[in-house]
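Re: [help] complex structure
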Amino acid sequence: MERIEHRACFGGWQDVYRHRSAALDCNMQFAVYLPPQAASRVVPVLYWLSGLTCTEQNFITKAGAQRYAAEHGVALVVPDTSPRGDDVADVDSYDLGKGAGFYLNATQAPWSQHYRMYDYVAQELPALIEARFPVTDARAISGHSMGGHGALSVVLKNPGRYRSVSAFSPIVAPSHVPWGEKAFSAYLGDHRETWKAYDATELVKAASERLPLLIDQGEADEFLHTQLRPDLFKAAADAADYPITLRMQPGYDHSYYFVASFIGEHVAHHAKALL
Amino acid sequence: MERIEHRACFGGWQDVYRHRSAALDCNMQFAVYLPPQAASRVVPVLYWLSGLTCTEQNFITKAGAQRYAAEHGVALVVPDTSPRGDDVADVDSYDLGKGAGFYLNATQAPWSQHYRMYDYVAQELPALIEARFPVTDARAISGHSMGGHGALSVVLKNPGRYRSVSAFSPIVAPSHVPWGEKAFSAYLGDHRETWKAYDATELVKAASERLPLLIDQGEADEFLHTQLRPDLFKAAADAADYPITLRMQPGYDHSYYFVASFIGEHVAHHAKALL
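Output below.
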């Protein structure tokens, strides 16, 4: 593991590391923000999963989350959104292949060799972080768009592993929207029953624990009615008696200006559960 | 003037406009953040001048300043860093030509046709902003690196026009550092006496007013001792009895992580003078 960026930020350190991932069988980069408190004690971790086309850079340069992480004493860990490298399968498409790993374990060729982002974000990366950084095993997770799908599905598939979850503009029902149908049919094959294992709106029906769950969704989001559909998740959660907070935010779109505007409240949401 | 971006952000609007600049004789883009207060009344303006290689995008996507502008009720206006377009002179260099206008009026061919960023940021843009947006004529100005040079020199050349000034990691003595010597010799010619008209460390010696002046400088900035030299400005200001606040910030480098970490204090510095 090699540190490739190291920058002072809000009294702590915004770092980026490169390492060899066993789950993904390729070299990966991830970002870690260590708040000032981490200089003298261990701190809990908020994981952030980014959306389509992103790397580990988007969130750390655009969201302004470090301010709030420093206020609360929470570390931020931000993985990339897919396996990377010349020998990793890809297509000329922003919503499939590199930059579009969808936080699942692919079962179909040519994707199955490297596209195991679920194992990476749910197991390998937390194990690495907890072994090598001054952090506790108290975990929370959030994300944006495809990363909101990742955060919700990882939490729902791993009872007992996280303290809280949140999402911005998440894809909540990938089996029922074009982005999800395209990715899931490529990565998981055409048998739709297998898709349910990564579909938050399916997973919430059988959830065995209740975590603090916050979703913010911009009402002016250009993808709201076609790709995101938080109403589907809300209905399923209501039916399952899983209390969630879904906030529709007038005027906001799908961009990081939206994330930046509310990330402080999300960090506070997680800090309350973590600390 | 055409609005090309319009995004909700911290209760206000982060917009980008394209217009024809008379001073620069080309099409330009600038960004405007209108805080929530601007929906019901006029607000003062903080101008931000960016550094080498930047456009109007860097500050608005990376600094997180909108949060503080919204708290205080201050608009942010962010121009590009040089004239733009296919017919604008350029060289294959990050520190001369496009992206490196140095906020001066060039006198030498081929630069003098378009490179008049001083007139643009000191006169044309404020006149446009004050005519077309819900703002007062209370102005403050800040900037980063080359833009810190811009902020300091524009203020010192225009007594009575601004209420306050600040800078992050500014080039303060362009006549005495490689970036400045390269740019000034190209834009202004080899007669160094003419350079003094844009050199903050020269200008402060004859300053006729005293504004609240704050400079933050990272001690781990890779350009501190070669290109920035805030000590030269501090010595000149002290000799001229111009009180300035120069803060050396341990650990911080030249990046927007540094700007983001302290922009809240800069916005507060300006809000105190503006409101």
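The interface with chain A takes residues 7-11, 14, 61-62, 64, 66-67, 218, 220, 249-253, 255-258, 260-261, 264 of chain B (CB under 8 Å).
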